[in-house]
Each structure stands twice: as structure tokens, then as C-alpha cells.
Design brief:
The chain has about 190 residues and is mainly α. The chain is about 70% helix and about 0% strand.
Length: about 190
Amino acid sequence: MALATLVRSIAFDRWITVLASLLLITGAVAARRGRTWGVALTFAQAAAFPVAFLIGIAPPWFCLVGAIGSLPFLLSSRALLRFDKTATRVLAALGMLGGALGAIGWSAFAATVFNAIPVTTPSVYPHHGLIALLTAIVGGALIVKQRPAAQPEASEIAPRARIAVEPEVRVAAVETEDVEAETDDEAERRAL
């Protein structure tokens, strides 16, 4: 979804959306590699898309981009909550707040940026066809390359797998009467 948004944004000179799409892609790649900062970045950037629609600076399909972009956070939220509930809640709140403030901030300063740097003004007609096409081809190739390969057979994994097994420890409570009886018996033996 981020790749489609990136290609569309390049074609129509929507440079802030190009940046947003690149941040979404960067976060998704990092999240796929198990990096928590990638999950946070993707979630914050995904939160900006629906807010941009709600304040009137983006099309309605940005809500879909935001929903799909928040999937890494939603899929990893159980594990994050198990590790630290408070930190996960703070991460979610900061992500939503950061995304919303980013969209609102862009809305407030976009006209100033467009006046100061006219080349950043969005166009109505598509441009940069070759760059958009190359971006689509390279991005599509990278997506296909990232597809997981066929899973190896269990017999191939077994010799390499190392599974740690914790020893089973049983602790039995000793009643105080038994302890007193044992100490009395030992005292008698020493006396003999």
C-alpha cells in the first residue's frame, strides 16, 4: 500500500506524501526485521494518513493506507503488552499524537512551503512517468524478493535446532513438627 501511495505521490508532485510513504516503508521494513522502532514509526506515520483526510487535505482512501499501515503495531501489540503494558500504551499514544500533529502541522504550513518553494506545489496532472514507473518496478521486485521461501522439512531443521529445556525443580514443604522431631532425634544420637 505504501508503494502504491509512493508511486502516485511521485506522479502528482505530492512531495510530503512521498516523504510519508518512504517513512512508512522504512518503518515496515524495520518492523519486519523485528525492530520495535520500526513498529513505532510505521504506527505514527499510519496515524497521519486518516488525520490528513479528516482535516480535509487528503483523499478518503488515505484512511485505508492508515489502516493497513497500522497492521505491524496491531500484530505485535500482544507481545509488546506482555513485555511492558505501560510502555506499549505510551507508544500507542505517542504514535497517534505524533501522526496527528504531523498532519495538522503540514496543513498549517503547506501554503507557506508552496509559496516559498514553488516546485513543491502539487500538480493536477501526472508528471515524472519514468521515475514513477521505475519506482513501481523496483518496489515490486523488492516485495517479490521478500516473500518467504518454502519452509524446510522438519528433518532439515532438527540437526541445527537447539532447544533449551529448563530442569524441573520440585520443592516440598517440610512441616515444622517433622523438623522438630528430626532435631530431637539428632540430639539423642549425639548424646549416645
